[in-house]
């Protein structure tokens, strides 16, 4: 049964499509306005688990159904890089007072030839510090960057970013690193195009099923 919460990704996509050519600077400000307008129409649940990040979160259209028992909300903004999620934290993270935050961001940073693994890692640390400044003890789950076939040329940088963030979070309290990278490879360690739609970047339901299985054990009841 569809609910206002489960309708969010559909409503977002419809409104976004209509406004895609009218965005103002900074990037994605209109996307955030859509989210805030949606929140006025449908009051967000109290104490949710907040999923936030780039398009792999936004396009997870069944997220609120598959994790319905956990009281989750999806506030992904497609196309964002890490610094943009940091900049919009006051709009798409803090207002929800989440009891847990699940993050997927950084893959769009990887394609920037000027951004090294260390650069992307440092951007993540700024995002992490921004959240911790406002929410010092809220559990944070970071989903590793995935192995997208369209970005195979950046695979070594992707693995380096994952390693840096995993090592960093291992020393931090109330955090978890969820490895989806290795789980999305075949038995020979190769990428699996069949998990992706035609752009070889965004996932089919089969890809999200892997994510669901990987993330579920880390969610708070």
Automatic annotation (TrEMBL):
What GO molecular functions are on record for this protein?
Answer: phosphatidylcholine lysophospholipase activity
SUPFAM superfamilies linked: SGNH hydrolase (SSF52266)
Q: Name one Pfam family in it.
A: Lipase_GDSL_2
Q: Is-annotated flag, keyword Signal?
A: yes
Signal peptide feature range: 1-20
What does the UniProt keyword field contain?
Signal
- SGNH hydrolase-type esterase domain residues are 61-208
Q: Which InterPro entries match?
A: Ester_Hydrolysis_Enzymes, SGNH_hydro, SGNH_hydro_sf
Q: What's the name of the protein? A: GDSL family lipase
């Amino acid at each position: 049964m569809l609910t206002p919460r489960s309708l969010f990704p559909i409503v977002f996509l419809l409104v976004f499509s209509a406004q895609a050519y009218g965005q103002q600077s900074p990037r994605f400000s209109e996307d955030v306005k859509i989210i805030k307008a949606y929140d006025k129409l449908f009051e967000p649940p109290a104490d949710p688990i907040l999923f936030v990040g780039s398009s792999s979160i936004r396009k997870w259209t069944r997220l609120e159904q598959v994790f319905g028992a956990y009281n989750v909300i999806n506030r992904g903004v497609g196309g964002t890089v890490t610094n943009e999620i940091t900049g919009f934290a006051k709009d798409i993270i803090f207002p929800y007072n989440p009891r847990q935050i699940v993050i997927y961001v950084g893959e769009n940073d990887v394609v920037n030839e000027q951004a090294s693994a260390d650069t992307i890692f440092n951007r993540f640390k700024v995002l992490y510090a921004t959240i911790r400044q406002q929410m010092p003890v809220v559990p944070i789950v970071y989903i590793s960057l995935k192995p997208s076939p369209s970005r195979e040329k950046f695979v070594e940088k992707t693995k380096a970013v994952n390693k840096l963030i995993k090592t960093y979070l291992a020393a931090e309290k109330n955090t978890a690193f969820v490895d989806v990278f290795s789980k999305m490879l075949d038995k020979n360690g190769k990428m699996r195009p069949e998990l992706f739609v035609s752009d070889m970047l965004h996932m089919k339901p089969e890809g999200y099923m892997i994510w669901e299985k990987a993330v579920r054990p880390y969610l708070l009841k």
